[in-house]
UniProtKB/TrEMBL annotation:
<feature type="domain" description="NAD(P)-binding">
    <location>
        <begin position="9"/>
        <end position="215"/>
    </location>
</feature>
<dbReference type="GO" id="GO:0042602">
    <property type="term" value="F:riboflavin reductase (NADPH) activity"/>
</dbReference>
<dbReference type="InterPro" id="IPR051606">
    <property type="entry name" value="Polyketide_Oxido-like"/>
</dbReference>
<dbReference type="GO" id="GO:0004074">
    <property type="term" value="F:biliverdin reductase [NAD(P)H] activity"/>
</dbReference>
<dbReference type="Pfam" id="PF13460">
    <property type="entry name" value="NAD_binding_10"/>
</dbReference>
<dbReference type="InterPro" id="IPR016040">
    <property type="entry name" value="NAD(P)-bd_dom"/>
</dbReference>
<protein>
    <recommendedName>
        <fullName>NAD(P)-binding domain-containing protein</fullName>
    </recommendedName>
</protein>
<comment type="similarity">
    <text>Belongs to the avfA family.</text>
</comment>
<dbReference type="InterPro" id="IPR036291">
    <property type="entry name" value="NAD(P)-bd_dom_sf"/>
</dbReference>
Length: 229
């Protein structure tokens, strides 16, 4: 039986790809969105819940909206945002937005009426988070520390710690630089990204597919795979 998906971040670029692919694969999907007028598809297997991804009570409401007989995998594709893709562009998200959300997700999951139905937490992280930072090239290390990317990098590191401390089975996927290209086969570089090259990138469509692959594949449970094309 395919697990149903509770998707956090469905209106983002990668999140929308995850949503579309999940529905195509036959998953039942519940999304938690702040804006009920978001441009989301109408589908018999899609349930839309309005709420704040940073509030455990709203996470609980979304979990209660899922189908009671089917196991749940929570997928989060939330990310920090800036006014443009330039590393020095102004940030438009609170400093610890992702950490606050993931802590709400963990709290909401643990306090749900049926916590045993929640099989795992799948999080879209980034190459450079946690122990993969040392394998970024020196230019990217400098950009992470000295540009407005620092807020993103720091928040991903906080998410990494919160997920590990949360106690739920997890997969934290660490893609290279996201590119809006067609899906192509992925390469895997352990948890630390060693050997991934100077500037590894990953198709958002490939990443979306892999985030769904690990909802049913246990090979990456409790791991932080670095992926790139």
């Amino acid at each position: 039986m395919l697990p149903q998906i509770l998707l956090i971040g469905a209106t983002g670029r990668t999140g929308r790809l995850v949503l579309d692919e999940a529905l195509k694969r036959g998953h039942s999907v519940t999304v938690l969105v702040r804006n009920p007028n978001s441009d989301l598809p109408q589908h018999q297997n899609l349930t839309i819940v309005t709420g704040d991804p940073c509030k455990a009570s709203d996470i609980g409401s979304a979990l209660r909206a899922t189908k009671s007989s089917i196991p749940i995998v929570i997928v989060s594709t939330l990310g920090q945002t800036r006014t443009s893709g330039n590393p020095w562009a102004a940030t438009t998200s609170p400093g610890r937005f992702m950490e606050t959300s993931i802590e709400a997700v963990i709290s909401g999951a643990k306090s749900s009426a049926e916590p045993a139905r929640i099989q795992k937490l799948v999080v879209m992280s980034m190459f450079g988070a946690g122990d993969s930072f040392d394998n970024l090239n020196c230019m990217m290390q400098w950009i992470m520390k000295c540009s407005n990317m620092y807020q993103t990098w720091e928040d991903h590191n906080l998410v990494d710690k919160a997920v590990r401390a949360g106690g739920l089975p997890f997969v934290m996927v660490r893609p290279g630089m996201l590119k809006d290209t067609d899906a192509i086969p992925l390469k895997f570089y352990g948890s630390d990204g060693k050997g991934s090259g100077f500037m590894p990138s990953a198709s958002m469509r490939s990443v979306a597919g892999f985030l769904l692959d690990v909802t049913v594949d246990e090979a990456y449970d409790w791991k932080t795979p670095v992926i790139a094309n």
